[in-house]
Write a sequence for this structure.
């Protein structure tokens, strides 16, 4: 029972954090609400019996990545964002669309609540299980992720480089 | 763990052959990155292009090597599966990569684009596309999809001096990430419904479900959400809004690449999901998307004045024709879709290579007006573009004709008369805007008498190869279709 209450409380908290992230005007406030989302998700993972994933979530997401976010915001000295009203079509179609999708998903989940019932601890949770999965069954996706990260880094380099680099080097040489 | 267990847990040698094209492309991609800072930039452009070209050639050879029957089957603990189906798409991706690299040489110099990252990203992107077509595990498909998408987001922004190129990249990135989130949520729901992310196991679980009388409601929803994500990537309506803006801003060879290779790979994923899982609700989902894509794409293309935007809307319409095959029965639908993908890749890469060459520095000449009198200014270029346009219309002796023919007959055999009629009417409408471009090229006075730069040799080879492929598919479609038909049984 307590388990359920905790689960629901943190679920609500994470959704509230996510909504707040969108509403806030200042990037720092948004970043801090993201910490709330990450933190409450970590608790959810823990409650589901995935203690390793929960720890990683705290260390990597709530820790490292959020520090990077805050650093970048501070370095860029990002101010309050300007708001536009957006297009009317987006409001007229978007909000009913989001509501309809939410209702459909909730209905499907409630209707089908017994679909994939698994006992807590039945799925891999401890580090040994995760390691077994990562380096055996999911070895290929794990290795291929390195290419994903590599092209993301290349992309950052390309997009951050000065556009006139070709001309400059031509003049120099 | 004992020693015996440890060795058993290592991938066997044939496993590596099953991802050989991917390994080859990654090695060449890394070689380009390592060479880039070591060599002088001016000579570097050509040298790096040469390495990339070699990489794509070796990838073609690796695909052919993979095609030996002894290497067929699944590897890496049922992550990838090599069969006639995946080899077909590996070949399409590698061939498109080859053509795009050949047609990029001159473009890179004219537009002054840095070559190292460009060729590297092309090769790494192709790794993702190859993996998508052979993966039978949704987690791997997701990672491969991200590799191919992120590399194309970046490639779209390579014309750094042009604001619309940056706009194109940012727009593509934001909307694409949004679509990926839908795909991922669909995967999560499918996992919730079936307890697995492996396509064969999902398929088995769903069959059991349906025979047990249970309505797989979560699976319906999961498939629909995955279709949203994948539909975005192939520019199917109603997820097509990004296409014209992105294609207009991105460098032309890149558009040639991203309108064919990643689409082919995503269609491969869709074929696996729709047919191997026997996705519930498949026909209606596809019916609506196909009809919308064809109609919206063709109607919007009628009023375009920019050739790149015109071809962008045409690619939306072609995604629609292709989706018609997905609503058909597997035994005709799968080969028809595969044949369409191959012939569309050949003609579209060619068309964008011509557009990229004619556009000149800064992509100046891209409107219909600019093309007036091209038939007199450069008869060869105009003739080549005309053949690709005729193929896009679907005139006999070009690949486009048989592609449409097989798709429409597959639809009729599945009793989708309504959809077939919509498709036929649409291809008649589409003829108007392709013919309009031809009329402008041949019947109008040239507005500008300055000579069009001659076709450089490498671009010439690329154009020759894509012309040859287009006409080969239009005259002798039998062998390709037969090969495609062999994969039907493997998918089921």
């Amino acid at each position: 029972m307590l388990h359920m209450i905790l689960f629901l409380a943190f679920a609500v908290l994470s959704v509230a954090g996510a909504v707040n992230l969108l509403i806030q005007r200042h990037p720092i406030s948004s970043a801090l609400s993201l910490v709330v989302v990450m933190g409450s998700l970590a608790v959810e993972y823990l409650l589901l019996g995935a203690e390793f994933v929960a720890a990683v979530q705290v260390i990597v997401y709530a820790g490292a990545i959020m520090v990077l976010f805050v650093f970048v915001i501070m370095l860029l000295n990002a101010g309050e964002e300007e708001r536009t009203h957006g297009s009317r079509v987006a409001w007229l179609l978007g909000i009913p669309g989001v509501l309809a999708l939410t209702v459909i998903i909730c209905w499907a989940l409630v209707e089908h609540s017994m679909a994939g019932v698994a006992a807590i601890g039945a799925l891999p949770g401890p580090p040994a299980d995760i390691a077994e999965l990562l380096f055996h069954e999911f070895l290929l996706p794990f290795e291929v992720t390195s290419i994903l990260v590599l092209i993301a880094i290349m992309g950052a380099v390309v997009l951050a480089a000065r556009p006139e680099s070709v001309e400059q080097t031509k003049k120099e040489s | 763990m004992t020693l015996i267990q440890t060795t058993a847990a290592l991938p066997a040698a044939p496993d590596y052959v099953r991802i050989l094209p991917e390994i080859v492309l990654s090695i060449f991609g890394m070689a380009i990155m390592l060479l880039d800072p070591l060599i002088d930039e001016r000579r570097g452009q050509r040298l790096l292009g040469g390495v990339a070209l070699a990489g794509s050639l070796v990838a073609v050879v690796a695909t052919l090597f993979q095609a030996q029957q002894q290497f067929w089957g699944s590897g890496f603990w049922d992550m990838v599966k090599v069969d006639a189906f995946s080899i077909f798409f590996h070949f399409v991706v590698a061939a498109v990569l080859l053509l795009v690299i050949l047609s990029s040489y001159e473009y890179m110099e004219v537009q002054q684009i840095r070559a190292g990252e460009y060729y590297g990203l092309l090769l790494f992107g192709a790794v993702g596309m190859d993996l998508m077509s052979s993966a039978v595990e949704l987690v791997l498909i997701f990672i491969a999809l991200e590799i191919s998408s992120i590399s194309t987001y970046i490639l779209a922004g390579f014309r750094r001096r042009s604001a619309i190129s940056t706009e194109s990249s940012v727009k593509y990135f934001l909307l694409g990430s949004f679509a990926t989130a839908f795909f991922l949520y669909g995967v999560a729901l499918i996992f919730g419904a079936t307890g697995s992310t492996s396509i064969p196991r999902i398929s088995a679980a769903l069959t059991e479900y349906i025979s047990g009388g249970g309505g797989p409601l979560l699976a319906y929803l999961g498939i629909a959400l995955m279709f949203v994500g994948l539909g975005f990537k192939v520019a199917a309506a109603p997820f097509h809004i990004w296409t014209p803006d992105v294609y207009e801003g991105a460098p032309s060879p890149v558009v040639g690449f991203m309108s064919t290779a990643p689409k082919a790979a995503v269609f491969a994923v869709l074929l696996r999901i729709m047919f191997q899982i026997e996705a519930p609700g498949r026909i209606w989902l596809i019916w609506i998307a196909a009809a919308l894509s064809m109609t919206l794409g063709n109607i919007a293309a009628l009023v375009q004045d920019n050739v790149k935007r015109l071809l962008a809307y045409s690619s939306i319409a072609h995604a629609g024709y292709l989706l018609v095959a997905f609503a058909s029965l597997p035994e005709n639908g799968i080969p028809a879709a595969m044949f369409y993908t191959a012939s569309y890749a050949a003609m579209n890469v060619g068309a964008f290579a011509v557009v990229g060459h004619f556009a000149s520095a800064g992509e100046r000449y891209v409107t219909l007006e600019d093309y007036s009198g091209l038939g007199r200014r450069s008869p060869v270029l105009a003739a080549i573009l005309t053949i690709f346009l005729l193929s896009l219309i679907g005139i006999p002796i070009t690949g486009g004709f048989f592609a449409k023919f097989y798709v429409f007959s597959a639809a009729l055999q599945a009793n989708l008369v309504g959809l077939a009629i919509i498709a036929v009417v649409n291809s008649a409408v589409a003829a108007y805007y392709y013919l309009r471009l031809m009329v402008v090229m041949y019947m109008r006075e040239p507005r500008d008498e300055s000579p069009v730069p001659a076709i450089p040799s490498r671009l010439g080879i690329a154009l020759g190869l894509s012309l040859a492929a287009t006409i080969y598919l239009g005259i002798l479609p039998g062998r390709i279709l037969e090969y495609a038909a062999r994969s039907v049984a493997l998918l089921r």
